[in-house]
Amino acid sequence: MFSLSGKTALVTGASGGIGAAIARQLHAQGATVVLSGTREAALQELADSLGERAHIAVANLSDPAEADGLVAKAEAVAGAPLDILVNNAGLTRDTLAIRMKDSDWSQVMTVDLESPFRLARAALKGMLRRRAGRIISIASVVGTTGNAGQANYAAAKAGIVGMSKSLAQEAGPRGVTVNVVAPGFIETPMTDVLPETVREKLIGSIPLGRMGNTGDVASAVVYLASDEAAWVTGTTLHVNGGMAMV
Amino acid sequence: MSDIADKVKKIVVEHLGVDESKVTPDASFIDDLGADSLDTVELVMAFEEAFSVEIPEDAAEKIATVKDAIDYIEKQKAA
């Protein structure tokens, strides 16, 4: 089950915690992975640790031209057409709306919403022709629930859901599926520094009684990327320990 | 047959996987050649690339037959 042998996957934001976990699990299922991000050394280190079937493609997704060109670049380094696109790269510029600068808004929109569209558009051209493909975008529970201090991020992540549903309708007749994974609170270096009382309160709001880990998110991506998920499209798979049942 | 007509025909055969004999000037992409709406968009994009022309959305909507495509591209190329 869930073999990705012979498939080629591009993972953006692969130098981050969740992105690296996604790349590792796709690779473990047999996929050839192209790791993308801005930090070349970190990407190379991950590629080296994976060994065979791992390539890197450095790209800064805040630059529209680099976003537009990344799929072609990934296919060139992998030497194969792209079967799986994982839009994982993202950034946050958290602050309350009344203090939010235009640049806080636009940077998040460009990287978290516009670049996934650019990548999906480029990937779809080949996928539609080949009548196969998987596009999986990483959103967030806050795209559904909202979150104080994240008007920009929540809007971008909600946008990912609407975009993916539209693309799923366009690409469905060609057997290409488009889905979203929406993580809740995931253990990362960022959440490690939270005070213990805040952590406890956070965990208290999660029925499954713990924070998520990056592997929880990666497993959901593997499922959606697999042949077994062939009849699942336009959906959002919430991976949040039951914190928000939507 | 003009070079443009020849090339259009070739693109249609390639993209829709239909027999060359079916690609007559009056053949409708959707009604006669089995194209769906996504096919027609892909065809228009293939024409744009092959002939280095831009086919705006409102013009693309009017291209229903092989002849429509040839006429439109010939007009663009002549302009």
Automatic annotation (TrEMBL), chain A:
Q: Care to name a GO molecular-function term for this sequence?
A: NAD binding
Positions annotated to bind NADP(+): 38, 88, 153-157, 186
Q: Which CDD domains match?
A: BKR_SDR_c (cd05333)
> Which catalytic residues are annotated?
153
Which Gene Ontology BP annotations are present?
fatty acid biosynthetic process
Q: Which UniProt keywords apply?
A: Fatty acid biosynthesis, Fatty acid metabolism, Lipid biosynthesis, Lipid metabolism, NADP, Oxidoreductase
Biological pathway:
Lipid metabolism; fatty acid biosynthesis
Q: Where is the Ketoreductase domain?
A: 7-189
Reaction equation(s) it catalyzes: a (3R)-hydroxyacyl-[ACP] + NADP(+) = a 3-oxoacyl-[ACP] + NADPH + H(+)
EC number(s): the record gives 1.1.1.100
Alphabetical list of InterPro entries matching this protein: 3oxo_ACP_reduc, KR_dom, NAD(P)-bd_dom_sf, Sc_DH/Rdtase_CS, SDR, SDR_fam
Family stated for the protein in its record: Belongs to the short-chain dehydrogenases/reductases (SDR) family.
What's this protein's function? Catalyzes the NADPH-dependent reduction of beta-ketoacyl-ACP substrates to beta-hydroxyacyl-ACP products, the first reductive step in the elongation cycle of fatty acid biosynthesis.
Describe the protein's quaternary organization and the partners it interacts with. Homotetramer.
Name it: 3-oxoacyl-[acyl-carrier-protein] reductase
Origin species, per record, is Gluconobacter oxydans
